[in-house]
Amino acid sequence: MSRKRDPKNERGDGLPLNASESDPDRAPKKFKSALGSGDSDEQSSGLDQFLPYPIHKVNRLLEPGPVLLVATGSFANKTHNIMTMGFHMMIQHEGPTLVGACIGPWDKSHGNLNKTGECVLAVPAVEMLEKVVDIGNCSGEDVDKWETFGVNPVPAPDPDFANGSGDRKGAEEDRARAPLVGGEGIIANIQCVVEDGALVARYNLWVLRVIGAWINKDMDLEYGQEDQTPGDDGGSIGGGKLRKREMNMAHHRGDGRFVVDGQEVDMRDRMVKWKEFQD
Ligand SMILES: Cc1cc2nc3c(=O)[nH]c(=O)nc-3n(C[C@H](O)[C@H](O)[C@H](O)COP(=O)(O)O)c2cc1C
């Protein structure tokens, strides 16, 4: 993995930087005012539950290895589907941010991913674990899992909104993308496109590029928005007080048993070589 951050913020692939990459610390503040607009469409869609999250920090969501939900297909075309995934890994912090995901041809989601070239990785909190397991024990071929398990698909927001360009709700073509996974039990949503499918035939391994990331606004924001320190509940978003709550991830042990986030051990002062990742 590439641990070094490009000091010039250039990722070298010619693509424009998402603002949450180029200026990650400002993006959340922009959102506070945007959320304050009280857009009722946004509230009804469920997007108001989430704030933008800096793309180059999604490793803080995935490095712990939580069990994930994967949304694929198109919300607008009603081909959206959801599955459970335990096999995934961070590949590269940024330039661009890359994640590896194993999604096999036995999953309907595999066909969706092949067709649209994009997906959303959602990090569920432990409160959702029963649903997460049930979602991974049936197929979208047989049931509408959104309906069956009462999971709310949120139309894809425009990832560029974090940049000050684009519309938070997204253009029609954005809304046709895989939806975010809504609900208070979702810690984060990570919007991805397929960067490299060369290893799919051999290993079912999709190399995904992260194009947008959204964090639950109730999440304890050690996760990157440092003007809101843990325990600081004085912030105001959307006219309401920030509620900080503990949202623990669940980690699959491979056989239907899980371990849940427990006590944090803070070793940051020993991370002498990697200070750049502690902002
Ligand atoms: C805890 C758990 C972890 C799973 N991990 C993966 C995985 O990493 N890759 C995969 O292809 N399937 C995995 N599955 C199985 C899929 O979630 C399952 O085949 C799913 O129901 C496919 O749904 P679909 O046919 O609607 O796409 C997992 C299931 C569970 C319960």
Automatic annotation (TrEMBL):
KW Methyltransferase (keyword) present: no
Cofactor(s) demanded: FMN
Keyword Disulfide bond: no
Segments of this protein annotated with the region Disordered: 1-48, 152-174
Pfam families listed in its UniProt record: Flavin_Reduct
Residue ranges constituting the Flavin reductase like domain according to the UniProt record: 64-224
Signal peptide residue numbers: none
Keyword tags: Flavoprotein
Single Gene Ontology MF annotation: FMN binding
Family statement drawn from the similarity comment of this UniProt entry: Belongs to the flavoredoxin family.
Protein name, entry field: Flavin reductase
Organism: Aspergillus sclerotioniger CBS 115572
